[in-house]
Structure formats: structure tokens, C-alpha cells
Amino acid sequence: xxxPGRRSSTFTRxxxxxxxxxxxxxxxxxxxxxxxxxxxxxxxxxxxxxxDPDLALHGLARLLEAQxxxxxxxxxxxxxxxxxxxRDRLLGVLGASAALADHLARHPNDWHALFMYEPRDLHPGxxxxxxxxxxxxxxxxxxxxxxxxxxxxxxxxxxGTTDIAETAAELADLATATLRAALALARAAAPEDAALCRLxxxxxxxxxxHELNYVSDVDVxxxxxxxxxxxxxxxxxxxxxxxxxxxxICSETTVEGxxxxxxxxxxxxxxxxxxxxxxxxxxxxxxxxxxxxxxxALLKARPVAGDIELGEEYVAALEPLVWKAAxxxxxxxxxxxxxxxxxxxxxxxEIERExxxxxxxxxxxxFAVQLLQLVHGRADASxxxxxxxxxxxxxxxxxxxxxxDAVQLDDAYRFLRSMEHRIQLYRxxxxxxxxxxxxxxxxxxxxxxxxxxxxxxxxxxWKRHTGVVRRLHEKLFYRPLLDxxxxxxxxxxxxxPEAARERLVALGYxxxxxxxxxxxxxxxxxxxxxxxxxxxxxxxxxxFADSADPDAGLLNFRxxxxxxxxxxxxxRLLRDEGAAAENLxxxxxxxxxxxxxxxxxxxxxxxxxxGDGGGLEPRGRAHLEQEILAAVGRADGxxxxxxxxxxxxxxxxxxxxxxxxxxxYGTEAQQAEADPGALVDRVGGAVSDLTAATLEGTLRAxxxxxxxxxxxTRFAIIGVGRLxxxxxGYGSDADVLFVHEPRExxxxxEAADAANKVVSEMRRLLQLPSADPPLLIDADLxxxxxxxxxxxxxxxxxxxxxxxxLAWEAQALxxxxxxxxxxxxGRRFVELIDPLRYPEAGLGDDAVREIRRLKARMESERxxxxxxxxxxxxxxxxxxxxxxxxxxxxxxxxxxxxPGLRTPRTxxxxxxxxxxxxxxxxxxxxxxxxxxxxxxxxxxxxxxxGRAGDTFPSEARELAAVGRYLGYGPGHVGDMLDDYRRTxxxxxxxxxxxxxxx
Length: 998
Prior knowledge:
Elements: H1 9-16, H2 22-29, H3 41-48, H4 53-66, H5 70-82, H6 84-96, H7 98-106, H8 126-133, H9 139-158, H10 164-189, H11 191-196, E1 197-203, H12 205-208, E2 218-226, H13 232-251, E3 262-263, E4 276-277, H14 279-288, H15 292-297, E5 302-306, H16 308-322, H17 331-344, H18 362-376, H19 388-397, H20 403-427, H21 438-447, H22 454-472, H23 475-483, H24 497-506, H25 512-523, H26 528-545, H27 550-564, H28 570-576, H29 578-588, H30 593-600, H31 621-634, H32 637-665, H33 676-707, E6 713-719, H34 721-724, E7 734-742, H35 748-766, E8 777-778, E9 791-793, H36 794-803, H37 807-812, E10 817-821, H38 823-837, H39 845-861, H40 880-894, H41 906-915, H42 921-945, H43 956-965, H44 973-996
Parallel strand pairs: 2-3, 2-4, 7-8, 7-9
Antiparallel strand pairs: 1-2, 1-5, 6-7, 6-10
């Protein structure tokens, strides 16, 4: 007897053998059933070798208790002690699967299935499993026989007799035998239906790929035909009854549970389509309607039950279509979008525990392999296997995947599948989530051979393998393109030029030969620079392929790399700062404007990183003005000063465009900006501040160069139009008014001459040919328009506006704001025009009619000939002009009484009108949405084409690039145009009511 307070030697041994509750285990070993062998060291050692010794012992005790008589119990005990193979198999299963322990407790004689092994039992095939299921004459018996066969598979798995690939193949073979048995039961139950039709069962998914899990839906497609002489419709109805009955036999829950769900949703039209189709009906669907993912699913199609000859005809008929899928427009983006959608649908709380669907999970490997198969399987039948690991090996052998990448992915896939198998085996439940409970993690780790510290080791290995998959799964597609142009070690396989071309075409490259030349120029050689490029390019190629113009992205990357390749920081920035490389790829492939800005001074790449370049956050007006004035102050002469100011403007324009592109596209680390209005406001504010600061610097340079520190007249620049409204786009001119006031003692003539010289010099210097984009100054909104003087004194403005101002001129002043020059003079100008633009008595009927008449004339006369008015963002129905004139009419009518309306900004005025109940919430939202969308389209056109435009581009790639900027995926430009028309049409309805009808 053990002394009080001291632990028995058995307790200590149990702890040493891995029991977590040795007290309970000790009591169990002292039970009547286990007493005869309780002190046998062989038993304890065998239990300690299992995944969960406590669970294994508990299962053994239940199995012994369930034996029908003492003789059967003795037989089992003797066999456990004497026969090591049985002991290892039985205890291994009991320690890994509570569900199979339950099965053995219900069917205590089934342990013999683990004992009577013959050589063929080591790797059984479909026929062996069919024999194991042969005696099942009803669904309940089929479940019992299925679990008995499953016992033997699990035993071979947990004992290491089979590896993960062999286990998955055996599970698929057992599923095949089970489908055949279930179909036989269905046919026996309805012999009349069976006599009328031929029914083929096509396995899809993991069953079709010969790589099934322990618990998984078994995906199938049914093909039916009539027997000779039978009516086709009747035959299909009969085949449908048989197929539905077969599915119920497998899926329904009985006293013995269910086997697994049979899922036919991969069929044409999914769950909305007929369960059974004829071969010709299947073929017609795939020829006309099938999406890319449906051809991807057919990679694993395999006839498994029913009329195998008909099943083989089905596979043969569809196979040519499968291998043409990569020729479809937007093939690679479609597949990648499907993968992203899967990830997006995972609950946030589960994504980090998702073995199958999460980032770095099993599906990443499977998608990457299938993508490569579809591209290269057209010309190389050796890569067409439906089994992931076999396909991966074939791709590596053919040079389509780098050998080291393939080895790492193979290891990761095997480990993750082993985790998935052991998780499912425990309860025989369909799950892909890594458990959170410590005991579950411990059992899982031990089942994978991690014994020292199972939980810590499991977590480390799991994260390591998902990290490998995350790093490689997209590079897998791109890295061999570099090997195709690089010097490889002797014996290394490489992509053939034709295979490289196929892959680039699939990625959306229009000129694969040029792309290969760029890759060769960037990545060939033995220099450190080339080595870093070989690391970067696989990822960069993927980001370029995600754009509408991958060719331009790669060409621009080569140009930037050629310009900066010798600088020590460029490649280091891209390699070491996570955001920089992706931001650069997005910017270089989004259109012409941003790359053109960058090419003029490639060192601006530094802005794309996270470090000292300031990032992509736009700089405020004060900061910009300070920098520009400092540069002007250091310069020798006005030309050099304005050149410096324009250089700052170019750099900051690049910062703004890059931030806009990255915000619109999103990155792997950050989703695209959800609020398009915020993007518009950011661009409008940044470009307007930059223009104002540039005007301030240019004014200072001109004055200093000609008059020293003081001009003979006070001089102010008033921003109007989009500049005054803080709404400038990338292609906008600077709309301004110039006002001056002679200083005391200066004659008006001298002052006017000085003011005019300032204006002419500013316009000249800001448009001088240089590497920097010109800033065009437009003063056409001045009194008398182009016929009037460029500069007026404040008194002259006052006299003109008092006597001659028309309603439209007052309207133009609604967005007037001081932007540069003498602040006091600018303030007085604004005070002067306030009564004009916000008349105390509101607008008279004559003024309203004049504004409406002018607006109608603009709509009819100014839209360019041949342009679609409905797609004209400025003058078309529901465009910028419609929204702005409607808002401005409200401002002129009510601005005197409602201070909130006195703002030069369109969106702020809309909000103020809503607050004052001049607009309904619905109408406000409609007008705001239309204005924001039209503004974004104009910005997109400038970014894509490098020149301003008010309509959508007609060239397909440019139109697609505008779509990508606006958030539309490949192949959806039609949706973009439809959405624009719909948004503009709704806005026009509001304008008709408020502007023309109010």
C-alpha cells in the first residue's frame, strides 16, 4: 500500500509515459477488465506511444467491457499483449480517434479488422474496399462496414505504414467503393428506373483528385443517358431518382450516423441546375456558359461509379475545353479573384486558425498548382494529374516550378494535410480549424510525432509551413519566368521560351517577347543588384499582372531600375521596406501620368517607403509654401527659382498620385479606401494647396528678380473655379483673377505696368519647356472675359461689378478665394464680392432665367461632336456641371440668410444645403455620389492617359485601367459604364427638379 502523501510507482510511470490524468488512469488499470495486464510494461509503453494515452486507455477499457463474454475478452487481452502489430494499430487508433473508439464499443468484434492483416491489406485498392462493403444490404449496414474499413485506414495512418498521400488515396478509394455500394442499393430499390437509364457518377474535388480527407463532402457530377430505345426525358428522370437516392443513402443520419454528404453543387448552374444532365447538355453548357472556376474544378473530374464508359466519354468530351480555359480573357485575374473571395468570406475570428482556406493554407497550394496546370497542361500532358502533390512534382520536373520551391511546398502541404487529417480523425467531424484547447493541441502535436513540447512545437511548425506557403504560392507562378532568362546550374530544368510566353500571355502581357527581354536585362548576371532583382521580380510580376497594363508596369520598372540601379538605397528600399515595392508596382502599372512624373526624377521612389521620405501623406499648404519659398530664396534669378518651385510641385504631384493610386487599388496589407469621396477630397485639397504654393513662390521669384523685395503695387491672386473650391484635379488649369492696388505715391500707370509684367512673367516661367509639367494659368473668368484686361485694381473690379456684372459672373465668384500674394488685398476683394454672390434679396426671376438659359446652351453647344453626352463627366446629364450649377443656384438664392452655404467647396455646400433642409437626404446623397464619381473619372483619365479628358477612353486597355482605379475588376468595364450612366441618370433627375423646375 502506498503511504499517504506519496505517489505510487505506477502513478510516476504513467506520468513518464505521457498520461495527463495518471490518477484516473491508475484506477482504470485496476478495473476488473484491465487487471490481468495492468502491470505489463509492454502495455504502458504502447499506450505512451499514442497521441493521447488517457484516451487510448479509456477506449481500450470500453472495448474490453463491450466484449460479449469472458472468452472474447481474454482473446483480446492476449492479442494486445502478444501481437505487437495489433497492439500498435489498435491503441494508435484509440489514442487518436474518440469517434472510432465509439464505433468499436458499439461493434466490439470489429477489432479483428486490425489484426488479420495480409500483405494486400497494407495498400488496399477500390476492389478490396468493395469486398469489405459487399455484405451491406441497407444504409445502416453500409455505415458499419464503412467505419470498419475506415478503422484499417486510420490504423495504417497513425502507425506510419502509409504517408499522407497514400492515406488520402485510400480514403478516396473507400469513397469510390461506398458510392458504388450506395448506387447498387438505390438501383436495387428501383429496378424499373435502373433498367431505363445509364448513370455515371463523376467524382470531383478531393475525391476526384484521389486525395480525400477523413471527413469531407464528396463532390460529384451526374451524367445520364437513356438505354437504347428509351425515351431520353424519362431516362433522365429515372437517373435523377437514382442519383438523389444514392445521395440520401450516403448523407442521411441513421442510428449509425451518416457517412458523408454527397455534394452535387459543382454541376452546371449549381444547385439551381438539374441534378442529372445528358452528356450533350453538359457539353453545351461548358461550351457557352461555364466560368473559369468551373474549368478549374474539372481538373479533378474522374468517373468512379455507375456507367464508367459513359463517365469516360464525359471526361474525354470536356477535356479539350479544360485545356483551353487559360486562353480566356482575364483568366489569371479570375482565378486569383476567386481565391481572394474565399479568404474574404472567412469569419475574422477564424482566419488565423483556418488550415484550408486561410492565407498560407492548403487552398493556396492547390490554387497555385491548378493555375499552372491550366496554363501549361495545354501543351504538356504530363502535368495534368488531378492529385495536387503529383501535379506539383510533374510541374517541377517540367521546369514550370523551381525545384526548391516545389520541395518546400510539398513539405508544407504534407504537414498541413496531416494536421487536417488528425484534427478530423478525433471526432470524425468536418472541420479545418486548428483547435484552441490545450489538450486538443497536445494530442494533435503528439499524433504528428512532436513529443518534447507538443503544443509549442506544433505551433512553431504550423506557422513555419504556412509562412512558406504564403511566401511561395504566388511567386510559384513568376519565379520560373526569371529562370527562363537566367543562367541555371547544369541539370536544372527551365521553362522553354514557348512555355514562358504562354505564362506571360496568361498573366495579361500583350508583348511577352518584350517582357522576357526586360526580365533578362533586370535579372541576368551575377552582381548583387541582379540577385536582389531576382528576389523582387517574382512578387513584382504578380502585382503588375493585377493591373490593366502589365507590359507598361514592367517596362517602367526597368526604366526606373536603370536610372537608379547604381544608387545604394534603391533596391535596398524595395527589398527591406514592405510597402515600397508593392506601392511602386501599383504606381508603375496604373497609367502614364504617375510614371512620367517619376521618370523625370526617379529619386522620388523614396516617397513610396515607410521611412524618411515622408511617406504618401500629402503635405499641407504651410509646409509646401515654406519649402518653395526657401528654394526660391536660394536661387539665382527668376528662371532658376521657378524651376526649383516646379520641381517641388512635380515631386508633390507624384506623392499625391501615388497615394491616390495605392488608396484606390489597395495593397496586400491594407484594403482600398472604402469612401471614394475621401479620395476625391484628398486629391483636390493636395493639388489645390500645391498649386497655390507654387503660385506664391513664382510670384515671389518674379517680384524679387525685377523689383527687389517690394512691388510698386499690392498684388493678390484670387483662385476661382476648382482652384478656389479646393477641387483641382490632376489635369486642371489654375483658374484665377489678378487684382492690384497701387502703393501710396505710385502712379496708376506704373502700378498697372508692374502688375501686368508680373502676370506675363509668371505665365511664361510656369510654362517654360522643362522636365517638370507646366502649370497653366487661366484668367478667362475675369470681367469681360478674354476681351478684358488681365489685371484690374480693386476699384476697377468694384466699378465693373456694380454696373455691369451678369448673373453668371456673380455665380463664377461663388468659388473665389485668396490663394497667393497680398493677403489683406485678397481679403478685401472677397468682402467686395460677397454681396454680389450672396445677394441680400436672393436671386430675381430674370437672373434665374439667365442662369438656366446659359446652362442649357452649354449643354447643347459644348459637348464635343461624336462624344456620348451620357458619358461626358463635365457637361453631360448628371455630370459635374449639373451638380455644381444646382448647388450654386441654392447658394445664390439663400447664401445671404444661411452662412453655412457660404463656402467655395461643392461638397461642403451640399452638406450645408441638407442641414438647412433645402435638400432631402436622398437628393443630397444622389448629387454627391454623382459629383464624386465624375471627379474620380476625370482624375482616372489623367492618370491613365497622361492628358486631361472629360470622357471615358475608347481604347480597351485604357478603359480597363480606369475601371481598375475605380474598383472594377478585370472584365467589368461594362459594369463600370452602366454604373456611371445609372448614377448620372439619377442625379439628372434631381437636377431637373431642383435647377430647372424649382
